[in-house]
Design goal:
Helix content: 10-25%
Shape: rod-shaped
Number of helices: 4
Radius of gyration: 44 Å
C-alpha cells in the first residue's frame, strides 16, 4: 500500500515538474534584447576609440617663466591644479572669450582676468579646485577657436602657468611671409628678362652725347649688360670697346675689343670692365659715350 502511494506521489511530482517546464518561458537571445543595427554600435565604438586617443594628452613644451605650452588641436590638454593654488590658463593675445563652461561648477572655481591693452589684450582663465582627486572638463569658446581642456586636481602638484602654441597660425605667418617675398621679388624683377634687381650691380656712370645713350648699365657679377634705347634701331649701331691703361694714366689707355654679343636692345659682355666706350661714326661726325664703373666708397 505504501509503495503504491509513494509511486503515485512520484508520478504526480514528475507531472508537476513537466508542467512547470512547459510553463517556463523559453530563453531569450541576447540579439533579441539589443538593437538589430550592429553597424551603429560599431560606429559608436570607433568614435569612442578616437575620442579616447584624443584625450590621452597633448604634446607639451616649456615656455618662458616655466609656462607649460600645449600644442593646440591634435590632443586634449590636461591641466593639473591643486587646492589653495591658482592655475593660469593663458589664451592667445587679442583673442576674445565668448563663453566658458565647466563640467563641475560646484567644486571648480573658474574666473577670468586680463593683461595688456587694446588689440594685444590677453585673457587668462583662472582655475581653482576645492577638493583633491577631482576630474572634470572645461570648454572655452573664443572669437578664434574652441578650447576643450581636461581638469584634474592634486593634493600638492599643479601647473601655475599654461599657454598654447598654434601650428595653424605659424603656417599662416609663413604663407604670408612667402607672399610678401614673392610680391617684393616680382616688383624688383625686370619683366623682360626675369633678372632680380637685388642680384644686380647698377654702379656705372655714363657720360657723352649720342642718339643712343644707354638706358642703364649693370652686371650680375659675371656679365655686364648695356641696355640701349629703342632709338638705336633707327641709327647706326655703335661699337663697344674696352679701355685699358697702364701706370694709372688714362692718357696711356688703349681701346681693345672684348667678347660681347647683341641680344635685342642689349650689349651683353662676357665679363666685367672698369671703363668702356660706345663709338659710332668717324671723324667729326663720330658719336662717343663713355661708361665707367663706380666703386663703392
Amino acid at each position: 500500500m505504501w509503495k503504491g502511494c509513494i509511486a503515485a506521489m512520484l508520478a504526480l511530482g514528475m507531472a508537476s515538474v513537466a508542467g512547470a517546464a512547459e510553463r517556463r518561458p523559453a530563453p531569450v537571445s541576447l540579439h533579441q534584447v539589443l538593437p538589430e543595427d550592429d553597424d551603429l554600435r560599431e560606429t559608436d565604438a570607433a568614435a569612442l576609440a578616437v575620442a579616447k586617443r584624443w584625450q590621452k594628452g597633448a604634446p607639451v613644451s616649456v615656455g618662458a617663466n616655466g609656462t607649460i605650452k600645449f600644442v593646440y588641436g591634435p590632443r586634449q590638454p590636461t591641466v593639473v591644479c591643486a587646492v589653495l593654488q591658482v592655475c593660469d590658463i593663458q589664451l592667445q593675445a587679442g583673442e576674445v572669450v565668448n563663453d566658458v563652461h565647466s563640467g563641475d561648477i560646484e567644486r571648480w572655481n573658474i574666473e577670468a582676468a586680463f593683461s595688456g591693452v587694446g588689440g594685444a589684450e590677453t585673457t587668462h582663465i583662472l582655475v581653482k579646485p576645492t577638493e583633491n582627486n577631482l576630474k572634470s572638463s572645461l570648454v572655452v569658446t573664443t572669437t578664434r577657436r574652441v578650447y576643450h581642456i581636461a581638469l584634474a586636481s592634486h593634493s600638492t602638484d599643479y601647473m601655475p602657468r599654461v599657454a598654447f602654441s598654434y601650428p595653424e597660425d605659424t603656417m599662416a605667418r609663413l604663407k604670408a611671409q612667402r607672399e610678401r617675398f614673392d610680391q617684393e621679388r616680382k616688383a624688383n624683377t625686370i619683366p623682360e628678362t626675369g633678372e632680380y634687381l637685388s642680384n644686380l650691380d647698377f654702379g656705372y656712370r655714363v657720360t657723352g652725347a649720342a642718339p643712343w645713350v644707354p638706358v642703364r648699365v649693370f652686371n650680375d657679377s659675371k656679365k655686364t649688360i648695356i641696355q640701349m634705347p629703342a632709338t638705336m634701331g633707327q641709327t647706326e649701331a655703335p661699337v663697344l670697346l674696352i679701355l685699358r691703361h697702364e701706370g694709372g694714366l688714362f692718357s696711356d689707355e688703349e681701346m681693345v675689343l672684348m667678347n660681347y654679343r647683341l641680344s635685342g636692345d642689349r650689349f651683353i659682355v662676357d665679363g666685367l670692365f672698369e671703363r668702356a666706350v660706345l663709338i659710332a661714326g668717324v671723324g667729326a661726325n663720330q658719336d662717343r659715350v663713355t661708361i665707367e664703373r663706380e666703386r663703392a666708397k
